[in-house]
Amino acid sequence: MTNHDLFQRALKLLPGGVNSPVRAFKSVGGEPFFTARADGAYLWDVEGKRYIDYVGSWGPMIVGHNHPKVREAVERAVRDGLSFGTPCPAEVVMAETLTRLVPSMDMVRMVNSGTEATMSAIRLARGATGRNKIVKFEGCYHGHSDSFLVKAGSGALTFGVPTSPGVPAANADLTLTLPYNDLQAAQALFAEHGRDIAGLIIEPVAGNMNCIPPQQGYLEGLRELCTHHGALLIFDEVMTGFRVALGGAQALYGIEPDLSTFGKIIGGGMPVGAYGGRRDLMEQIAPAGPIYQAGTLSGNPVAMAAGLAMLELVQEPGFYDTLAARTRLLTDGLQAVADGEGVPFSTNRVGGMFGLFFTHEKVSSYAHATAADAAMFNRFFQGMLEHGVFLAPSAFEAGFLSSAHSDEDIAATLDAARIAMRLARAG
Ligand SMILES: Cc1ncc(COP(=O)(O)O)c(C=O)c1O
Ligand SMILES: N[C@H](C=O)CCC(=O)O
């Protein structure tokens, strides 16, 4: 069984041959490989080729793939059944863990994906404020519900459909968009529409137009604006939650949002999302209150077990310091390689998350990110892949490190980068 054979079979039955657009290699060229197994920092494809993996299942695998403690927790949970349709003890432990680690969340509701979490959070914002408009940022991605597929990042940006066909105009009109890291633009928008805005949702570190950290004072400024205008500040921490720090970006930057959304890491690799926040808001969710939201498999016992095992591992002393130091080793190393090869290149990083850009500029906005040389990125991507390093197959996705990535893995990555940078430059 080869990657090519599987992709040909998949193309006949799955749109684009994949179950999520970013997995297809459409923008970088070529065909995706099919993973047979994963362990630690590595993926192996069905042909037996090994890759050092900087995608990490798009963020969740912060302790590496197939970590024994996560796997054993899942195995133990599976023995007791796969899904109950009644409350189970692990949901309560998960809620206790999340609300302890994320102090802005007094209460939490578990769901099955990041999309469900953000979609539910804005319903709550609208229901609680009695207002209809929401604000999001160009290049930020909050899952694929209608309100968010407006100037969206991730695959929507990669494939040139930031505002998707199929989103009714009436829906899109309620979504106001802003440039990321531009506080003046936000002030002007609130001055005009403030009394109609239910909530502002932001990736506190943008990760779906590649990785762009917030500028100093930016998140604080948004917090003040929302408070002043009676709009809810929603941190979408589906990617940044437990990725940039224990407790997420809100812990790192010391900002208290009204609502937060989580996913990825808190599911340990299983399909999980969560939204939570102030008690007076969360008590408006059914059946405590009138705002409806439900899920047949929500709080699934196996998913809770995986997530809890993961959350235990990231609480080990020094976990985030070590992860951040390794990420720095990688990005500094890549910068040195690029400089040595005379390739225009810059990097961003926060905790275990990083961005690579083929430009001399330090990237701090959507405009900078989209102006970087995507063709160069594509050639670099192919060179790295050829030499056994898997980066996200798009110039508009962040990269992720895990605690399983060793100094040797990073050294091997830099060796591959020496060749790939030359390919990128060659054109
Ligand atoms: C910041 C952010 N929010 C929401 C989502 C949606 O999550 P999911 O793909 O689990 O629906 C993602 C990733 O896809 C994300 O990166
Ligand atoms: N950028 C997306 C989420 O973070 C990637 C995951 C996906 O859409 O499949």
Automatic annotation (TrEMBL):
* Residues carrying N6-(pyridoxal phosphate)lysine: K264
EC id: 5.4.3.8
From the Swiss-Prot or TrEMBL record, state where the protein is found.
Cytoplasm
Q: Which domain of life is it from?
A: Bacteria
Top-level EC class: isomerase
Quote the catalytic activity from the record: (S)-4-amino-5-oxopentanoate = 5-aminolevulinate
This protein's record includes keyword Transmembrane: no
> What UniProt keywords are attached to this protein's entry?
Cytoplasm, Isomerase, Porphyrin biosynthesis, Pyridoxal phosphate
Question: NCBIfam families attached here?
Answer: hemL, PRK00062.1
| Family, per entry | Belongs to the class-III pyridoxal-phosphate-dependent aminotransferase family. HemL subfamily.
Protein name, please? Glutamate-1-semialdehyde 2,1-aminomutase
Its source organism is Dyella nitratireducens
Q: What is the lineage of its organism?
A: Bacteria, Pseudomonadati, Pseudomonadota, Gammaproteobacteria, Lysobacterales
